[in-house]
Design goal:
CATH class: Mainly Beta
Helix content: under 10%
CATH topology: Methylamine Dehydrogenase, Chain H
Number of strands: 26
CATH architecture: 7 Propeller
Number of domains: 1
Distance between the termini: 48 Å
């Protein structure tokens, strides 16, 4: 028996900000107006359809309903943002921005469909440094299944692309969720942090925190250094955890301590705590979350980093799967009793709570959860 679930119906929201100020008022009123544009207006008709079967479902694949990524970037250097949609079970789509919020599906011509694979995250960046944005697609899906090799589409400069992940060293068979391209060693080219989810089951884990120091031969997070256009795995020597307990769902790059060098924040689901990698400015990182923070989300779904109070120091906001009420919270699988919480804490998994957190940067090497 098959069930069809429609996960994502794509629309384009156009935001127009209007502000009005009246003399004599103590405050100004600001309204935000959103106009909903239909597929008939935009020509975007992407739909991420998921087929739930007895062989492939949430029981056989933990991240079955995690969704897929969307990448936005200018792919033909015309100053307009184009859109790349990832699909879990069908082909991906590339829509070229023709202006006036009109888009054209150029997927087949461009050669970036990724048919027959479970695509997750997507990164758009000028990976080879030729002045044209490229597309890197992360792959996941049922462990043991086919089509899990990540794909790198190099921009040919004419709205066509050539797949070169293996040639450049970025082919990966882990359960990849996201990738971030940034110049961590400040040598003028883009390096890559690849976020891979764990193959192992969540249940039945032991609480030895030293597990995070043991590399996972099947997957694990990766750091690739760009050496003259070829990406070299420098994960271990750079101080990056690549273990089987890293259930990563989000990765962000920002200069957290404002020393001029990019740092890395990784959001981990389930029992493992998040990671904050501080750049040592010599090609290595020091994982320092417990030095910077006092508490975090338990099963982080992802995070964002931005300066929220205009003091030029970045804050960190992490999202969780908080229930709508306390009764629901206490019936969730991740609800911890006091005994379980203390056991995790004393075993090295830090102070984790099932809620969103906003970390205020104290500008002194620490954050306060507010």
């Amino acid at each position: 028996m098959r069930f069809r679930v429609e996960l994502i119906k794509t629309v384009v929201l156009i935001s127009v900000l209007t502000a009005s100020c009246r003399r004599g008022d103590d405050k100004s009123a600001t309204d935000t107006l959103f106009t909903l544009l239909s597929p008939d207006n935009t020509n975007i008709s992407f739909l991420n359809k998921i087929d739930y079967t007895e062989e492939f479902n949430t029981y056989t694949y933990r991240n079955f309903y995690n969704g897929a990524g969307v990448g936005i970037g200018d792919l033909n250097n015309d100053g307009l943002a184009d859109i790349y949609f990832c699909s879990n079970q069908a082909g991906n789509k590339l829509y070229l921005n023709r202006g006036g919020f009109k888009f054209e599906d150029i997927t087949e011509k461009a050669g970036v469909g990724c048919h027959g694979s479970w695509s997750t995250g997507v990164a758009i960046a000028d990976i080879d440094g030729d002045g044209w944005n490229d597309i890197y697609v992360c792959k996941s899906g049922k462990p043991g299944g086919q089509g899990r090799s990540n794909e790198l589409f190099i921009n040919n400069g004419n709205l066509t692309f050539t797949e070169k992940a293996k040639d450049l060293g970025l082919e990966n068979l882990g359960l990849s969720n996201h990738a971030s391209f940034f110049d961590y060693d400040r040598d003028g080219d883009l390096d890559c942090y690849l976020l891979n989810n764990s193959f192992r089951s969540v249940t039945g884990f032991d609480m030895n925190p030293r597990q995070r120091e043991i590399p996972d031969t099947l997957g694990g997070n990766k750091l690739f250094r760009n050496d003259n256009g070829h990406f070299v795995d420098v994960t271990t020597e750079s101080g990056i955890y690549s273990s089987k307990i890293g259930f990563g769902l989000g990765v962000n790059v920002a200069d957290v301590n404002r020393d001029g060098w990019p740092d890395i924040y990784v959001s981990n689901d389930f029992f493992e705590r998040d990671y904050l990698y501080i750049n040592d400015r010599d090609g290595t990182f020091t994982e320092s979350l417990e030095d910077y923070m006092t508490e975090i989300s338990q099963g982080a779904m992802g995070a964002d980093i931005a300066d929220l109070n205009n003091d030029v120091w970045p804050e960190i906001y992490a999202t969780e799967m908080t229930a709508e009420d306390n009764a629901r919270q206490k019936t969730k699988v991740l609800f911890d009793t006091w005994e379980t919480y203390r056991k995790k804490e004393t075993s090295g998994y830090f102070h984790q709570f099932t809620r969103n957190v906003l970390q205020l940067n104290n500008r002194n090497g620490s954050f306060s959860e507010i």
